[in-house]
Amino acid sequence: MNNQLLSETARALVADDKGLLAMDESTPTCNKRFATLGIPQTEEARQAYRELIVTAPGLCENISGAILYDETIRQQRQDGTPFLKVLDDAGIIPGIKVDTGAKNLAAHPGEKITEGLDGLRDRLKEYFQMGARFAKWRAMIVIDDNLPSASAMEANAHALARYAALCQEAGLVPIVEPEVLMDGEHTFERCLTVTEESLRTVFIQLNRQRVMLEGIILKPNMVLSGLKCPQQASTDEVTTATVKCLFRTVPAAVPGIAFLSGGQSPELASAHLNLMNFRFKSQLPWALTFSFARAIQQPALEIWQGKEANRSSAQMALLHRAKCVRAACRGEYSEAMENL
Ligand code: 13P
Q: Which of 18, 97, 136, 219 is catalytic?
């Protein structure tokens, strides 16, 4: 295991107030998003959309790394240049989603376990040889008044830790993503309790599996009210609760925390990240940044609609969101930026 390579890669991913662009939607998820907008659900359309993203001019000014999906990492630009080379030439570090999805956890109605450990060592080796330098695995933690169960949290944390150790063996920085879902009626206080417990469980397992904390990036949810909770927490409450939760649970050895957006609007996700950095940046041991999918891509996808004529306006929308979230990493984002 090359500890130096791992910690250098992890630090590079969060350096300079940049963050990650998650473009690793599985084929079914990508198709679902396309279907909502009437875009054909074909490999050609997925290739065209991903080409639009990786060739957006100046993307690297705000984005340090891009998370790809197995189909995407093997795709090329129309002119035959592999996406991996396009990213590399732009100075964007390529990453790869390696879990195979969340399945029902036996004997735990409503709860999920993420799969993908079988054969993972060989897949990681191949991705490293192709040029990937980091990986992603998402655990889904379902929340309500009674869930998650301790056993679902433990099973998911154990899988995350096994994955993380295998990644580090292969020279890939693991993005460790235990996502407490936004779906539900729960309060943000309940989300705080569950997120705290989940992160504590994850770090116990990471330590047990001998994962080097300097060579990971944590990708958590922010502490938010459930989407159907009648009382939505304010930006101030989200900021305070999220930072409190991270201070209590995430060791200072971890170089960076890159949030998922989880279904928040792009503006709200940016505002939350911004206030955290504006208030607390000088006190934080880790970089607080982003690894958003929807909160960076959604406006671009809606503009593109599968039409070549909309390609450059879609790219402009993508670059705008990337600029806004990097500003949020500096505590310099404001609503006014949305009207520029
Ligand atoms: P969202 O930002 O859309 O939540 O996606 C992040 C991600 O990569 C989920 O695994």
A: 219
Euclidean distance between CA atoms 207 and 74, whole angstroms: 34
- Name the band, by pLDDT with cuts 50, 70 and 90, for residue 268: very high
The pLDDT value recorded for residue 340 is 74
Residues in CB range of 193: below 8 A, 6 or more apart? none
Which residues are near ligand 1 (CB < 6 Å)? 22, 138, 177, 260-262, 292-295
**How many Å is the maximal CA-CA distance in the chain?**
53
Q: How confident is the model at residue 1 (pLDDT cuts 50, 70, 90)?
A: low
* Distance between Cα 141 and ligand 1 center (Å): 14
Of 332, 333, 330, 323, the residue nearest 63 (C-alpha): 323
The DSSP letter of residue 163 is: H
Write the CB contacts of 321 (distance below 8 Å, at least 6 apart in sequence).
266, 270, 295, 296, 297, 299, 300
pLDDT score of 236 more than 70: yes
Tell me whether residue 126 is one of the annotated catalytic residues: no
d(CA 283, CA 17): 15
Options 25, 177, 179, 196, the catalytic residue: 177
Which residues are 65's β-sheet partners? 20, 93
Q: What is the pTM of this model?
A: 0.98
Stretch 99-112: mean pLDDT? 98
- How remote is the CA of residue 24 from the centroid of ligand 1, in Å? 9
71 CA → ligand 1 middle, Å = 18
Q: What percent of the chain has pLDDT over 70?
A: 100
Stretch 155-183: mean pLDDT, rounded? 98
**Contact status, residue 216 vs residue 172, Cβ threshold 8 Å:** no
